[in-house]
Amino acid sequence: MARLSAADRQLAHITVADGVMVLTVKLPTTAAPTGRAHWRRVRLTATIPPHLHTRAITDWHLPTLVLDRRGLLLRCAATEQIAAADLSAGATAVGVDWSPATLGAAAIVTERPDGLVSDYRGFTYDDRGLGIRLARLQAEGQHLHRKAARLTRLAATAPSEVRAELEEKIAVLDAHRTAIGVKRGKINRELAFHFGREVTTTPPRPARR
User: Fold this and answer.
1) Looking at the structure, do residues 156 and 173 belong to the same domain, yes or no?
2) According to DSSP H, which parts of 23-159 are helical?
3) Largest CB tally within 10 Å, which of 3, 14, 49, 83?
């Protein structure tokens, strides 16, 4: 996976015309480029999905490139103009709670001439087991942290030969902790995006007193 969002415009940029996106990336031709002759431009083209053609998109941002079994996937964010909404014209409000305890809960209240109505049942998000995986990874990371801390204390007073062995073990534990942190970050991101999609696309149940 390659992230281009932080790349300088001289190294990567996007142009869009007639429903086609062209990503131009400047890549080195040698391990240690020293001049312009050691760089070349590579262009990747992608068709913009039809459902985005009518959207008021003003800017496309550099994508994340992911290589999977289907080929090269461009995950690209965009800036879209949205008409300002009249907040006072709304008659329905959605309250959302996102916390480790609830992992996503929402309730809907509708204003009617006879007062506010709600079913009071709300909406509980189904995390598809991701919350359990997240808790397991957190516990594993904490265990590795305690183990690395104990070995660090032992290494501080150990002979040089033993200290070298302990430092190698500590490095392995730190690498495992880093990998667990990456996994937790991916799960957190998936939870947030999936919950947001569920809240915004799930049709509300009829409200009642």
Assistant:
1) yes
2) 130-157
3) 14
Residues of the chain with pLDDT under 70: 1-8, 87, 98-103, 119-122, 202-209
Please state the φ and ψ torsions of residue 146, each to the nearest 5 degrees: -65, -40
Answer whether 41's CB lies under 8 Å from 25's CB: yes
Residue listed under structure tokens 């265990």: 143
Co-location of 11 and 49 in the same domain = yes
pTM above 0.85, yes or no: no
pLDDT tens for 97-130 read 766 666 677 778 888 888 888 866 667 777 778 8
Side by side, the strands of the sheet bearing 39-47 are 12-17, 20-28, 39-47
- Token pair for 35: 């001049």
- Which of 136, 92, 98, 132 minimizes the C-alpha distance to 116? 92
